[in-house]
């Protein structure tokens, strides 16, 4: 019998909700076929099986939560000589930090399981642990003796090391924040309770973490984008003939990456523990996408190397996949700076929250026609509200102001965006 378990799919995902089983007890299943669709706080992941056989039993019911390491199915391979108890095929590459398994909804490639291999330990007094767990503990400087293993017979697994390290960091952060006793929420007559989605849980954690450890400050300004509006109107039909939907977001992103070239600290992260600024080599611009389940932030990789039309295509592709919950983990990983478009839901402006571990986020409000004074004359112009929120630990207000000046210079003049 083969016990097929929910393995680590990376990105700190430790649980998911069963959305759908593609097979039932008694069915035959082939190696590589998708057994189950699991909703995580990042993506909906299709989980394929690594063996062929008859399904004897299935894991948690549809709608229930399954945790990493729990059994998804017991499969009879027709070979009774040896009972297997892990979903392991091979030892994972120690340099592969993501540890992704399964297949995302939009992928046609089956990714091999990256669960861990048991280590046979005979000497007494030594902690029972997998080789990968020992290597990770050594790299992170974690004393493996302090960790309670979740594996068979108390064996310490890779996920145990990761969880312990994460909790230690959180405890360090929380110790610097004043403890606040949150009062219980009581129901009044007619009130009702509703469980939040796994995606919303992810948003809650991310926003709470960001506001706990990052001192936010926001600069708000307005920009005359009349030339940009005229430029887009002139060329959007030409872009359509080439299969490109030329929205303002493409220009907004292009102006951002050019500003980052002038002020690279806005494309960095702050390592508080080591008191170091990490300047990111790649400029991966996240775009906040509103979905029925909550906010998802995919990012455009190496946006500074893309043309205006290429950026427009990426915005359309990522937005569509995010709204359909078919986004891949790779599209969510590695973001270095984020843009949120308040104008998309008819808002004038806002003060966005930084996506940790990034240090800045740009908010764009609704472009509106407003009366302004030009050469001592009142004229009607297209005005875009801007809000730049940044990490005040490493970016001062003057730096934010200089960055905003550079950004406005690029965005108000579309021809500058077309120059290398």
Please give a handful of descriptors for the protein shown.
420 residues; alpha+beta; OB fold (Dihydrolipoamide Acetyltransferase, E2P); Chloramphenicol Acetyltransferase; 2 domains; 7-stranded mixed beta sheet; 5-stranded antiparallel beta sheet; 24% strand; globular
Reading the helices and strands in chain order gives: EEEEEEEEEHHHEHHEEEEEEHHEEEEHH
Say which CATH homologous superfamily of the largest domain is assigned: Chloramphenicol acetyltransferase-like domain
Overall shape: globular
**CATH top-level class of the largest domain:** Alpha Beta
Low-confidence spans: 81-124
Oligomer: single chain
Profile the largest sheet.
Answer: 7 strands, mixed
| Tally of distinct domains | 2
SSE-based structural type: alpha+beta
**CATH architecture of the largest domain, please?**
2-Layer Sandwich
Strand content: 15-25%
Kindly state the percentage of residues in helix: 25-40%
> What is the rounded Rg?
25 Å
Number of strands: 20
Query: How far apart lie the N and C ends?
Result: 61 Å
CATH topology of the largest domain: Chloramphenicol Acetyltransferase
Mean pLDDT: 83
Count of helical segments?
9
